[in-house]
Amino acid sequence: QVHLEESGGGLVQTGGSLRLSCAAFGDTSCITTMAWYRRTPGEAPVFVALDHGLGPTRYLTSVKGRFTLFRDKNTIELQMNNLKEEDTALYYCKAECEENIYWGQGTQVTVSS
């Protein structure tokens, strides 16, 4: 079992920055991919940034150049700069461990003008 703990969400004005953090606990030796997703009310979760441990990090097109994912073993952070109102969402951390997928509880990011 893997448990993910997220932190770092909050309220910020347009153009501001936030940094999200996600740490994995438990049987983490099998974790390969770690990623951030986000979800707005009534919508399915959308991939934001992903590190699968092989090759470059992948980003949602709309966040390229503004968001950066950092990974240190089983901890990932998402540095979000130049935030826009459309970045407002519940952000989730995801980890893949063999055939299992684990999600964090989510952390709210709200960007206001």
Give a quick precis of the structure.
The protein is mainly β.
Helix fraction, binned, reads under 10%
Radius of gyration: 13 Å
- Mean pLDDT level: 96
Number of strands: 11
Number of helices: 0
SSE succession: EEEEEEEEEEE
Largest sheet: 7 strands, mixed
Based on CA inertia axes, which overall geometry fits? globular
Distance between the termini: 41 Å
Low-confidence segments = none
Structural class: mainly beta
**Proportion of residues in extended strands:** over 45%
Provide structural commentary.
With 113 residues, the chain is an all-beta fold. It contains no helices and eleven strands. The strands form two sheets. Strands 2, 4, 5, 6, 9, 10 and 11 form a seven-stranded mixed β-sheet that branches. It has a four-stranded antiparallel β-sheet with strand order 1-3-8-7, with no helix packed on it. A hairpin with a 2-residue loop joins strand 7 and strand 8. The relative contact order is 0.33.
